[in-house]
Specification:
CATH architecture of the largest domain: 3-Layer(aba) Sandwich
Strand content: 5-15%
Enzyme class: lyase
Keywords: Lyase
Number of domains: 2
Helix content: 40-55%
Radius of gyration: 21 Å
Organism: Pedobacter africanus
Protein name: N-acetylmuramic acid 6-phosphate etherase
CATH class of the largest domain: Alpha Beta
Structural class: alpha/beta
CATH superfamily of the largest domain: Glucose-6-phosphate isomerase like protein, domain 1
EC number: 4.2.1.126
Number of helices: 10
Number of strands: 5
Shape: globular
Order of helices and strands: HHEHEHEHEHEHHHH
Strand order of the largest sheet: 2-1-3-4-5
């Protein structure tokens, strides 16, 4: 395989460059990421559809990764129960070294051949679930060995990698290969590869949540009311959707039912909702 992610940077003598030159170069490289993702949207769409189908059937989604990509997947998963009211355990991340060691950067754990599959077994992985491996190189042993065992156990697999014709992509039913090119600092895949991964996590999880009905119109109607900012946002969403003009009344109804979605369902059953955004 060709390891583009390890190829020499297109820039050199960086220690002699000005701040203006360095930020300009980095921005120039970052501009390539969105175009690389656009080039593989059909593959991304197939992966998303597979995830949606699994979750609609009662299955679960697992990201599996190490290093920067694995940590970014954890951050994506953490947001979903609050933003979309998604039941915990539906969307998951298996991180090499464990999520409890998120800040420790246990890079040596990416070479562990058993930890990924053992963690999936502990979670009760089964053919109703889907596992998506994250690896910029496309060769990470932690990810590769787990995906091999997933396929042997008839568990649907996907991946996000940044090199062509990788062993991990060969083990994925739904491979997403985003070629972002050599990194600005040679081999530093926390940069463009990490940016691509973050963009993909946002794209995948947001689209999945919409397709699962966790969004109505363009509003997070299932958001959990965990702080004053989110409560205020939810009250305003309810006022807009239900045609309620009094803030205090809308807040009282919202708190009584726990979410905009539940409040709207109740108001509609009473025939009180006068306005809904489509």
């Amino acid at each position: 395989m060709t390891s583009i992610t390890e190829q020499s940077s297109l820039y050199d003598q960086l220690e002699n460059r000005s701040v203006e030159e360095l930020t300009g170069y980095i921005n120039q490289e970052d501009e390539k990421v969105a175009a690389a993702i656009k080039a593989v949207l059909p593959d991304i769409n197939k992966l998303i559809t597979a995830i949606v189908d699994k979750l609609k059937a009662g299955g679960r989604m697992f990201y599996l990764g190490a290093g920067s990509g694995g940590r970014l997947s954890v951050l994506d998963v953490i947001e979903l129960p609050t933003t979309y009211g998604l039941p915990k355990g539906t969307y998951n991340s298996i991180l090499a070294g464990g999520i409890d060691r998120l800040a420790d950067a246990l890079e040596e754990k990416e070479d562990d051949l058993n930890e990924g599959w053992d963690a999936l077994l502990k979670a009760g992985i089964n053919p109703g679930d889907i596992v998506v491996g994250i690896s910029a190189s496309g060769t990470t042993p932690f990810v590769l060995e787990a995906l091999k065992k997933c396929r042997a156990a008839n568990v649907t697999t996907g991946c996000i990698v940044s090199n062509p014709a990788t062993p991990i992509a060969e083990q994925a039913d739904y491979p997403v290969v985003v070629i972002t090119g050599p990194e600005f600092i040679t081999g530093s895949t926390r940069m463009k590869c990490g940016t691509a991964q973050k963009m993909l996590f946002d794209m995948i999880s947001t689209t999945v949540m919409i397709r699962l009905g966790r969004v109505e119109g363009n509003s997070m109607v299932n958001v959990k009311l965990i702080n004053d900012k989110i409560l205020d946002r939810a009250v305003k969403i309810l006022m807009q959707k239900a045609g309620i003009e009094d803030y205090a009344e809308a807040k009282s109804i919202l708190l009584a039912h726990g979410s905009v979605k539940a409040a709207m369902d109740k108001l509609n059953s009473y025939g009180r909702a006068t306005k809904k955004n489509n």
